[in-house]
Amino acid sequence: AQSVTQLGSHVSVSEGALVLLRCNYSSSVPPYLFWYVQYPNQGLQLLLKYTSAATLVKGINGFEAEFKKSETSFHLTKPSAHMSDAAEYFCAVSERGGSYIPTFGRGTSLIVHP
Amino acid sequence: KAGVTQTPRYLIKTRGQQVTLSCSPISGHRSVSWYQQTPGQGLQFLFEYFSETQRNKGNFPGRFSGRQFSNSRSEMNVSTLELGDSALYLCASSLGGQLQETQYFGPGTRLLVL
């Protein structure tokens, strides 16, 4: 069965600092992996996804994530945080060959200090 | 293209009542999924409809039901409301419901059960 773990329910960074949000998955085969962002009072918006092409995936708003099979990780990074990046971030996994039911992590709240 | 729309945006109900939420997917999208989001449980999959058929179902009691119409619009119904049903209900649509497809989320319906 697939599962996804997001380490840290809250991450706090200063504006201009590196953003690193951690995501580890458990799956019998390398899955499809997604990062979504949710701003207050809004639905989720896709940041980026891994579907087995390049292991380094670039997304919107300057975010990128690297799929590391050996570490079963898909961490999200951004070189320089902006105040507008403050939001809730969700990692999600869909297992290849499995049902459509995706599994979401519990989310990480990114706080950006001026 | 218009995004995913959900109505109503906010609802207040009392225990024992029932509620119907509506979701209009992006034009051309045939798959509609529903999620429940709460602070305690995070984002949980309710069910997915594709071409008017429920194709996948999460682990929720039978009080939660849904349907999809020929124009892909979807409704979900919760009967005999309980306090624990208070949540943000999110709808997401995608083209054909493949595992690697991007899901586009609506802004959600916030339900408060008193």
| Average pLDDT level of chain A | 91
Structural class of chain B: mainly beta
Oligomer: heterodimer
Overall, the morphology of chain A is: globular
The dominant shape of chain B is globular
Taking pLDDT < 50 over at least 5 consecutive residues as the criterion, the unreliable ranges of chain B are: none
Percent of residues in β-strands of chain B? over 45%
Count the helices of chain B. How many?
A: 0
The SSE order of chain A reads EEEEEEEEEEEE
What would the average pLDDT of chain B be, to the nearest integer?
Answer: 93
Query: Termini separation of chain A (Å)?
Result: 41 Å
Query: Count of DSSP E strands of chain A?
Result: 12
Q: How many distinct beta strands of chain B?
A: 11
Low-pLDDT segments, ≥5 res of chain A: none
Helical fraction of chain A equals under 10%
Pick out its properties.
heterodimer; A: 114 residues; mainly beta; six-stranded mixed sheet; four-stranded antiparallel sheet; 12 strands; globular; B: 114 residues; 53% strand
SSE arrangement:
The complex is a heterodimer of chains A (114) and B (114).
Chain A: E1 3-5, E2 10-14, E3 19-21, E4 24-26, E5 32-38, E6 44-50, E7 56-58, E8 64-68, E9 73-78, E10 87-94, E11 103-104, E12 108-113
Parallel strand pairs in A: 2-12
Antiparallel strand pairs in A: 1-4, 3-9, 5-6, 5-10, 7-8, 8-9, 10-11, 10-12
Chain B: E1 5-7, E2 10-13, E3 19-24, E4 31-38, E5 42-50, E6 53-57, E7 64-68, E8 74-78, E9 87-94, E10 104-105, E11 109-113
Parallel strand pairs in B: 2-11
Antiparallel strand pairs in B: 1-3, 3-8, 4-5, 4-9, 5-6, 7-8, 9-10, 9-11
